[in-house]
Amino acid sequence: MQRLYDFLRRHPTWVDTFWAVVLFGMSGLSEVSWDGSPHHHGSLPAGLAVSAVLSVVVALRRRFPEPMLLVALVTGLAQLVLDVETTVADFAMLVITYTVAAVGARWASRLALTVSLCAATAAQIRWPQEQASFGGQIAIAVFQTVPFALAWVLGDSMRTRRAYFAQLEERAARLEKEREAQAKVAVAAERARIARELHDVVAHNVSVMVVQADGANYVMDTAPDQAKKALETISSTGRQALAEMRRLLGVLRTGEHQETGEYVPQPDVGQIDDLIEQCRSSGLPVDFKVEGTPRPLPSGVELTAYRIVQEALTNTRKHGGPGAGASVRLVYFDDGLGLLVEDDGKGAPHELYEEGGADGRGHGLIGMRERVGMVGGTLDAGPRPGGGFRISALLPLKPAH
């Protein structure tokens, strides 16, 4: 049965043709009485011709709704002129009215409604019921008009329903495209975040390793113990950098960190102490103070604060020159976390920081501003009076969940 149903849905004209043949057969039987004489007014050929045309209207109604409506109207006028009384075939008028209201053009739908409301009255005037009173004839005309009105209302309701479902489908398709666009934006943002993370990790840890390697090479012969300590620092720094890079690159591989669980957590404010100790061990004097009452912070703020300090100290090491020192202040306000990183080195041109370093290929202050902007904070950076560089940031706090 399902196959038959699917076949009929794919070939609606065949279904309409079947019903058209049935309608023509019933009309032919109603046109002729048992003794072979015409059953209604008008000639038998004219009645059969009208039935044939109206049957064609039913057969082709879905393929050509507007032309078939016009054919039905001309046929109805011909019935009035040729005095061919209404037959079973006139049921096609109801069918084409419904069809045009459901799938036809708007002008055709309005025309069908207007004509259908007048058809019963015109037929009653042309072929009045002689035994009925004037009031009875009006009642008959109204009664015969009701099916036409209902056919149009049903067809128009189907049009509205189809339009509603088409709108829903269009909206679903649009939402799907928007989700795809949002996914692409999210991927791009994630790639930018990974690039910033990799810049911070590589720039900081590699600079530490370079400084330690230079120091080890300098004291290799005169102070082997210091050289050994420098090599140990290089080793631990390299392992830390590799661990962070594995974590960052792992997010590009779907589900990998859930499967292995090997990636280290995101850096937070608590690890700033370790970062500063690493800088001190590499030969950069850093003064670190915390003011206010430490408390839990949103993970985004924690990571942003850590990366700002890391980037600032890396820039001090790269651009501050020999003998440069730095100071880091971490201040807990009621509604924000303040960061102040200053150095007293000779500094570098502000443009180099904006470009991300002397090579112009990093993220530098651009990356800092992006990080701060992502958590709704503000950043102020520039040279200090008398030399050195100053970075100040205010990160708004939200209740930690």
Automatic annotation (TrEMBL):
UniProt name for this protein: histidine kinase
Residue stretches making up the Histidine kinase domain: 307-399
Record Gene3D superfamilies: 1.20.5.1930, Histidine kinase-like ATPase, C-terminal domain
Native source organism of the sequence: Streptomyces rubradiris (Streptomyces achromogenes subsp. rubradiris)
Molecular functions (GO terms): kinase activity
Enzyme Commission no: 2.7.13.3
Pfam family, one: HisKA_3
InterPro entries reported in the protein's UniProt record: DUF7134, HATPase_C_sf, HATPase_dom, His_kinase_dom, Sensor_HK_TwoCompSys, Sig_transdc_His_kin_sub3_dim/P
Chain segments annotated as coiled-coil in the UniProt record: 165-192
